[in-house]
Amino acid sequence: MQYFVNVTLTGLTEGMVYAAFALALVLIWRSTRIVNFAQGSMAAATTFIALALIQDGQSYWVALVVALVSGFVLGAVVERVVIRPVEGGPELNAVIVALGLFVAIQAAIAIVFGSSFQSFPTPFGLEGFQVGDDRIALTPTSLYVIGSVLLVMALLVVLFRFTRVGLAMRAAAFGQEVARLLGVKVGRMLTLGWALAAVVGSLAGLLIAGGEFVYPAYMDSLIVFGFVAAILGGLDSPVGAVVGGLLLGLALSYVSGYVERGSALVNVAALVILMVVLLVRPGGIFASSTARRA
Amino acid sequence: MADPRPHGSTAVPGGTTTAPAALEVQDLSSSYGPVRALDGVSLSARAGRITAVLGANGAGKTTLLRTISGLVRSSSGRVLLDGEDVTAAPVEAMVGKGMAHVPEGRGVIAELTVDENLRVGSLFRGKVGRDEFDRVYDLFPRIAERRDQPAHVLSGGERQMLVVGRALLAQPRVLLLDEPSLGLAPRIVAQIFGLLRRLVDTEGLSVLLVEQNARSALSVADVGVVLNLGRVVVTDSARALMDDEDLRHAYLGF
What whole-number distance in Å separates Cα of residue B175 and Cα of residue B179? Predict the structure, then answer.
């Protein structure tokens, strides 16, 4: 029983990070119909910026804020400079550009920060809490991970539901032409959407790095998991992305915890889940009832 | 060009011919790729008037509206809004200059609720009092009942009410309407046209109405402009166009 609880807690914590990363993918997909394959390396870039600051003696929190701000700037610049020219064109163009950006940023990280493994600190402990006589797999760091992802999600809900900018962003995402006719500066809203998505992606990158080793490609598996989580949720639904992330986190944790040599099967399991979902429910678990043209 | 003689209220300040043109289109041309869609179109839409643009499918009616609002860039000619040259103004700026364009196919944002759709229409104005929304809901009680539902549940007629209401929240002086009657029951068309007539008469709005359904458009309009192959064939009062049997047979299909 205790083992089950521990495996579940690990799954939920990991799932929160997948959820955040999936959310970043969904934010961009909803507004520009582009799967941002470069999201992982963009997040890695900001994590390395944070690491450089920490190694320079700055506190974790200063580094975190600087990393999130640079994520915002990076997202905006990428949309304006790289993505804008291919927006609205053939979908394949955007896919190729995003993949190229993924490789280019990863190479840039290796050039600037080196490609060796470096340990990334976490501001909280990695030792599980004591419950009775047992130590459970819930650590202060996992609480920090869960809490910060929940906080970001709550902020996004407030932004999109209750603010004028959020309404303008949704209008720009769902009805570009109408939004322009109604005076919404659609280009600016799309840039802002990419910038916010990059902040959320960067947060996921920083959280997954905490207490682990980072290297230029350390986000590669997270982008696979985040993508699967986003597909699980339907790619169009922020709520779906969060639920998909948690489900995937749990599923992968059970695979790794209960299947013999399961930890080696985690990547395979993620792809099997992806295939099953695409076969059984191609629109994702949360596919919205209204079909909508890209 | 024939003198437009509106059949509606003639008690507009400034008389019928000297009423200022809220929207003035001068020699406007535009193309879709190599295809010239508008070829030197000139017309004016006056305050307190409904100006109907009529013609067959492919005559350039929709392109005319899209070029006026800047969705399609003109290759030559000018668009004046209350005398100001807005030909090169960005699409996003037009609503702030007093022009609202309700595009073909209604332009409801299906993923937003009815109320959110209305709010998008007033976003550029900053904070807008709740009473203005209530006024739109009073005009269209049917969408008031569904204000918190996603707009994709609305019927065709309700969608038309929503987009007209949304355009009104932008407080335009010039309203461009593209095929508002498309796919709607005659009763609903009459209701919407009747409402437009009231707004035009009471608030001095200028409406530029594009319609394939020439008969019902002319029944509500003051002035008719007939387009064919991107050119203006004739501009006359709606009544005169109604009475011109040859013209009706040749261009308006009734």
Answer: 13
Which residue is it, tokens 């009680």? Answer: B141
- Cα distance between residue B211 and residue B221, in whole Å: 11
Mind listing the pLDDT tens digit for each residue in A178-223? 999 999 999 999 999 999 999 999 999 999 998 889 999 999 888 8
The Cα–Cα gap between A283 and B8 comes to 54
Chain B residue numbers with beta carbons less than 8 Å from the beta carbon of A293 are none
A107-131 pLDDT per residue, tens: 999 999 998 999 999 888 888 888 8
Residue B166 in contact with partner chain A when CB distance is under 8 A: yes
Beta bridge partners, B150, equal B113
> What global pTM score does this model have?
0.86
Alpha-carbon torsion, ordered B120, A162, A27, B170, to 10 deg: 10
* A170: phi then psi, degrees, rounded to nearest 5: -70, -40
Given its phi and psi angles, is residue B183 left (phi above 0), alpha (psi -120 to 50 degrees) or beta? left
Read off the DSSP letter of residue B22: E
Residues forming a β-bridge with B43: B25
Measured between CA atoms, how close is A54 to chain B, in angstroms? Answer: 43
pLDDT value of position A128: 82
Contact predicate B9/B197, CB 8 Å:
no
On the question of pLDDT at B11 being above 50, the answer is no
* pLDDT tens per residue across span A89-99: 888 898 899 99
Q: Could you count the other beta carbons within 10 Å of the beta carbon of residue B86?
A: 20
Terminal Cα distance for chain A, rounded: 47
- Percent of chain A at pLDDT > 70 equals 97
**pLDDT given at position B112:** 93
Are A167 and B123 spatial neighbours (Cβ–Cβ below 8 Å)? yes
Q: Which residue of A has its CA nearest to B121?
A: A182
Q: How far is CA B249 from the centre of its chain?
A: 24
Cβ pair A184:B124 closer than 8 A:
yes
pLDDT at A288: 54
The amino acid occupying position B154 is L
Interface residue ranges in chain A relative to chain B, Cβ cutoff 8 Å: 164, 167-168, 170-171, 174-175, 177-186, 290, 292
Residue-wise pLDDT for A251-274, tens only, equals 999 999 888 887 788 888 888 988
- Which chain A residue's Cα is nearest to B105? A178
Chain A CB within 8 Å of residue B250 CB = no
